[in-house]
Amino acid sequence: MGLRELKKRETRQEISDRATELFLEHGFEETTIADIASAARVAKKTVTNYFPRKEDLALDHHEAFTSGLARTVSEREPGESALAALRRAFAADVQRQDPVIGFSGLPFARMIADSPTLTARLRELNEQREESLAAVLAVETGAEPGDITARAVAAVLGGVHRVLFGDVVRFTLDGLGNDEIAERVGESGRRAFDLVEPALADYAVRAGE
């Protein structure tokens, strides 16, 4: 990585870190772009150049969130179905208590729950995630244009992940520790994936090499 790119990455991280501190201390709605720029010692335009939407300063894993399901399916093993790949990936995410699936800590979870703007943005990100998954499924299965199957499957699998994400946040707000949340959500995940297994076990199975 060149020095210019390294400097840009450091600036982006500094802005993100200062924004998170302000959001947690004062609330998302109450914190302005000017406040963030001042804390990070940059111009307001610099903040918006790196983060066009204020919500993305708070939800800074949004790119990994929206692309994660699609990437898991596209990288699945030979003989593995889309469902099996997503199930395996979710179990691994729970084990490492990944922030992308909701393990954010109580202050952060409370900040999101208290902000109508962030709650709405999460709904948008869930829709984008399902759309990305549907696009990959359509390609992987050779679906005809207009075929509803990939979109319907993406809605089901995206819905499972959306519900489980909500459980992580809810348990966090209830004051449970991450280890207990992981145990509960791990079990909920197994049950949820079991429910859709009969319908999707043989869908989008990658051909063996």
From TrEMBL:
Keywords: DNA-binding, Transcription, Transcription regulation. The lineage of its organism: Bacteria, Bacillati, Actinomycetota, Actinomycetes, Mycobacteriales. Residues 32-51 bind DNA. It comes from Rhodococcus oryzae. This is TetR/AcrR family transcriptional regulator. Pfam families: TetR_N (PF00440). Residues 9-69 form the HTH tetR-type domain. InterPro entries: Homeodomain-like_sf (IPR009057), HTH-type_TetR-like_transc_reg (IPR050109), HTH_TetR (IPR001647).
